[in-house]
Amino acid sequence: MSDDERLINALRALRQDYLSEAPTRVAELRAELQRLESGDMDGLRNLERLLHRLAGSGGSYGLPVVTERARAGEQDARAMLASGSAPSSAEVERLRAHVEAVSQAFAEARTDDSVFS
After folding, report:
1. Residue pLDDT, tens place only, 86-100
2. What is the longest distance spanned by two Cα atoms in the chain?
3. pTM score, whole prediction
4. pLDDT by residue (tens digit) across 21-80?
5. Which residue, 13, 23, 25, 100, shows the most beta carbons closer than 10 Å to its own?
6. Nearest to 55 by CA among 33, 34, 78
7. DSSP codes of every residue in the chain
8. What is the spatial distance between Cα 42 and Cα 36, in angstroms, rounded to a whole number?
């Protein structure tokens, strides 16, 4: 096996480990969204933080769509935090759409290994 093949196999293994944690990450996002819906602004702060982490880590594992979708959610959450007031129901729904977009990006990534081809 060549060095390139070993590297590709190592990257695939790292990516698979990252993707295996995706259901937990999405569950965390959904839990914070639910917390926000119950009126707890810490949910919004935590949602912004979790989306920030996913935006940073997605690209490192060859998942640019995860990064893109998480970053969009992070930016929305950050703007809502900056407003200083509780998000409207429409804003919460926008955050929900971001969370579901991240979930979908993870689902698509689990079936696409072309990044290492």
Report:
1. 999 999 999 999 999
2. 58
3. 0.90
4. 999 999 999 999 999 999 999 999 999 999 999 999 998 898 999 999 999 999 999 999
5. 25
6. 78
7. --HHHHHHHHHHHHHHHHHHTHHHHHHHHHHHHHHHHTT-THHHHHHHHHHHHHHHHHHHTT-HHHHHHHHHHHHHHHHHHHH-SPPPHHHHHHHHHHHHHHHHHHHHHHT--GGG-
8. 7
